[in-house]
Specification:
single chain, 190 residues, alpha/beta, Rossmann fold, seven-stranded mixed beta sheet, binds S-adenosylmethionine, rRNA processing, SAM-dependent_MTases_sf
C-alpha cells in the first residue's frame, strides 16, 4: 500500500505535465486507475507477465507492486513514457520489473511470456495479433476492457479463429469488494 500510495502521489504530481494522464483523471487516480489495475492481480500466476502499452504504468507498475512473486516486462514504445517507467522502477525499488522500449509487434524478448496484460491500448481484435506471438504455448491474455468487452469479443471472431484462441471469456472484477467493476477479456493461445 505504501508503494502504491507513493506511485499515485508521483503520478498526481508529474503525470499531467509529462502527458501521462489527463487533468480530469487527477481526482480519480486512486479510485479509477489504481484500484482498477489492482483488482487484476489475483488473475496472475508466478512467472513472466508482459504489460503492453504500459504508458503511465497501468496496470504494469500497480501489478508489479501487488505481485512481487511475478516478473514483469513493461513494453512501451514512447521514449518519454519509458523514462517515466524506468524512473518509477528505481524510485519504488521494484526488482521484478524490466522496461522494454518497443512496439509489441517488434519486441524482441529473451523469453516468451506466460501472460500478457494491456489496458486502453487497442480493441481485442487488434490486440490478438500483437499479444499472441509473445506468449508461450498455452499462455494467456488478460486484457482490461470497458463496458463494451462482450461486443469486442464478438467483433474479434475472425482473429480468435485465426489464432486458435480458447477459453475466451469476459470477467467482471471488483464487485465483491465494492469498487467500480473492471472488465477483463481472458483468452488462451494454443
Ligand atoms: C491510451 S495509452 C494507455 C496507457 C496505459 N496502459 C493506461 O491504461 O493508462 C496507450 C499506450 O499504448 C502504447 N502503444 C500504442 N501502440 C502500441 C504498440 N503497438 N505496442 C506497445 N504499446 C503501444 C502507447 O504508446 C501508449 O502509451
Amino acid at each position: 500500500m505504501e508503494l502504491a500510495r507513493r506511485y499515485t502521489a508521483d503520478l498526481a504530481r508529474r503525470g499531467e505535465e509529462l502527458g501521462l494522464i489527463g487533468p480530469l483523471e487527477l481526482p480519480r487516480l486512486w479510485s479509477r486507475h489504481i484500484i482498477n489495475s489492482g483488482v487484476v492481480a489475483p488473475l496472475l500466476r508466478p512467472g513472466l507477465v508482459g504489460d503492453i502499452g504500459s504508458g503511465a504504468g497501468l496496470p504494469g507498475i500497480v501489478l508489479a507492486i501487488a505481485r512481487p512473486d511475478v516478473e514483469f516486462v513493461l513494453i512501451e514504445p514512447m521514449e518519454r513514457r519509458v523514462l517515466w517507467l524506468e524512473d518509477q522502477k528505481d524510485l519504488l525499488g521494484l526488482t521484478n520489473v524490466t522496461v522494454v522500449r518497443a512496439r509489441a509487434e517488434d519486441a524482441r524478448l529473451p523469453q516468451r511470456l506466460d501472460q500478457v496484460t494491456a489496458r486502453a491500448v487497442s480493441a481485442f481484435g487488434k490486440l490478438i495479433p500483437m499479444c499472441a506471438p509473445l506468449l508461450r504455448p498455452r499462455g494467456e491474455m488478460v486484457l482490461m476492457k470497458g463496458a463494451g468487452a462482450a461486443k469486442e469479443v464478438a467483433g474479434a471472431e475472425k482473429a480468435i479463429r485465426k489464432y486458435k484462441l480458447s477459453e475466451v471469456e469476459v470477467l467482471e472484477l471488483g464487485e465483491s469488494i465494492g469498487v467500480e467493476v473492471t472488465r477483463v477479456i481472458r483468452a488462451r493461445v494454443p
